[in-house]
Amino acid sequence: MRTAISYFTDLTDPLVDRSKDHLMEDILFITIAAVICGAETWNDIENYGKAKESWLKQYLRLPNGIPSHDTFNRFFSALDPDEFEQAFLSWIKDISELTEGDVVSIDGKTLRGSRDGNSKRAVHIVSAWSKANQLSLGQVKVDEKSNEITAIPKLLEVLVLKGCLVTIDAMGCQRDIAAKIIEKGADYLLAVKGNQGCLEEDAARTVRFIKPASEWIEEDFGHGRIEKRKCTLYNDLSFIDNASAWKNLTAIVKIEASRYIKSSGKEEKEVRLYITSSQKNAEVIGKGVRSHWGIENNLHWQLDISFNEDESRKREGYAAQNFSTLNRIALNLIKHEQSKKRSVKGKRLDAGWDNDFLLKILTN
Q1: What DSSP string describes 107-148?
Q2: Are 254 and 275 in contact (CB under 8 A)?
Q3: How far is 87 from 99, CA to CA, in rounded Å?
Q4: Element (H, E) at 361
Q5: Mapping DSSP to helix (H, G, I), strand (E, B) and coil, where does residue 106 land?
Q6: Would you state the pLDDT for residue 223?
Q7: In what order do the strands lie in the sheet with 103-111?
Q8: Is the pLDDT of residue 6 over 80?
């Protein structure tokens, strides 16, 4: 199998010939290695390169030494983000395994630090997360004058989804999106709210008057609380107005969740509704709903907490979008390396201290 870095060496170098003091592959290698080891700024990356220059010379040509922070900034601010993303997708397709029944969650995240006063909207990225592979599968930037509804189909188009269950929150509960998921050979599980005419009202009537087709209950005890989740499926769609407009719609899903906090005696309850094209039972669907939050806990949370992405102030050109891709490359590489049972933060520390471990991450 090719190393991760090799998938990015055929990119179009954005730096003009007269200013090419450094090789593109050197810039990419140093940057990805630095980000794995904790770098968050262009200055961090330059300082990392200088500290590790003797080690880097074993693998890179470095004709003019370590690039400056300005060079790193200019390179990634000008690099075509779509081409960078295509290289990312090619790499992910090779390292991930298409797993029958995998839950692929799609959700958006705003890079809050990328906003420049009132003149520029913060960059918003829609990402896909594989539960089975524990990998970020890809991402698409939401156009400045658009929203997630237009970005999600673009992301679906480039993903391999056959046999998967695709979960999206209420923003993605759109007929065209449901049809696109079916076209990709997958099933959908879409949260229902008041953004689709009478669908929420029709679904509420369904769960009130229709006899359930199947149910599944899961209980958790621990950390001072008792949690209970109940998933109920309703296959009779007679209350759903124009149900045929939703491609392959098979069931309305009701999730009832309750949490009891022992110390305070407080109990919280929540009911959520979904539509799905899956013909699986309530247990599979219920676990699919719960798996959706994996994109928050394993991707967005890691990017904010471990990579401090929300605090990034990269605003020039394509810098914010490309650095977001760099963070996802680093996160995937770290998660893909399984020789150490350490947290993401722990592995980043180890990689900074141990060049052999860093090389293992980079070439895994």
Answers
A1: EEEEEGGG-BTTTBPPEEEEEEEETTTTEEEEEEEPPTT--H
A2: no
A3: 22
A4: helix 355-363
A5: strand
A6: 72
A7: 135-141, 123-130, 103-111, 165-168, 187-192, 266-276, 251-261, 225-234, 214-222
A8: yes
Closest among 245, 268, 243, 242 to 257, alpha carbons compared: 268
The phi, psi pair for 22, rounded to 5°, reads -135, 150
> CB neighbours (10 Å) of residue 139?
24
Distance CA 186, CA 181 (A): 6
Alpha-carbon distance 201 to 311, whole Å?
A: 40
Q: Is 45 helix (H, G, I), strand (E, B) or coil?
A: helix
The contacts found for 243-250 with CB under 8 angstroms, 24 or more apart, are 245/175, 246/175, 246/178, 246/275, 246/277, 247/175, 247/178, 247/179, 247/182, 247/277, 248/178, 248/182, 248/187, 248/277, 249/178, 249/275, 249/276, 249/277, 250/276, 250/277, 250/278, 250/279
Integer Cα distance of 339 and 129 in angstroms: 22
DSSP per-residue letters across 242-271:
TGGGSTT--EEEEEEEEEEETTTTEEEEEE
**Which position has the token pair 């509704």?**
273
226-229: Cβ within 8 A, 24+ apart: 226/259, 226/260, 226/262, 227/257, 227/258, 227/259, 227/260, 228/257, 228/258, 228/259, 229/255, 229/256, 229/257, 229/286, 229/290
Neighbouring C-beta atoms of residue 141, cutoff 10 Å? 21
DSSP letter, residue 299: I
Q: What tens digit of pLDDT does each residue of 30-86 get?
A: 999 999 999 999 999 999 999 999 999 999 999 999 999 999 999 999 999 999 999
